[in-house]
Design goal:
Helix content: 25-40%
Number of helices: 2
Radius of gyration: 14 Å
Distance between the termini: 36 Å
Strand order of the largest sheet: 1-2
Shape: elongated
Order of helices and strands: EEHHEEEE
Strand content: 15-25%
Number of strands: 6
Largest sheet: 2 strands, antiparallel
Low-confidence stretches: none
């Protein structure tokens, strides 16, 4: 079950268990065995997730392979929204 709350001061996102962990660690141990179809699946899924975020006014600001999680079917999910902001609003300098 996935859920989200974006009330001021209570922003959170709950997602399912991601069996294969983060993309960085997965690539460290499985890079030699990834075929072209799996590479395409991961890259396309990541791009679609990023497009969804940007379409909804969210800027992640910390995209890296360690912040992409893989489920049991190697479908990617973008994670770690600690530095993200909405509609270009920022408190960082």
């Amino acid at each position: 079950i996935q859920a989200a709350c974006d009330e001021p001061g209570r922003m959170c996102y709950v997602m399912p268990y991601m069996q294969h962990g983060d993309l960085r660690a997965y690539l460290d141990t499985h890079a030699d065995t990834l075929n072209q179809a799996l590479k395409h699946q991961i890259a396309t899924g990541f791009a679609k997730g990023l497009q969804y975020l940007h379409h909804n006014g969210i800027v992640h600001r910390d995209l890296k392979s360690a912040n992409v999680l893989l489920d049991e079917y190697l479908h990617p999910k973008i994670a770690d929204f600690g530095l993200s902001n909405r509609d270009g609003q920022s408190t960082m300098s």
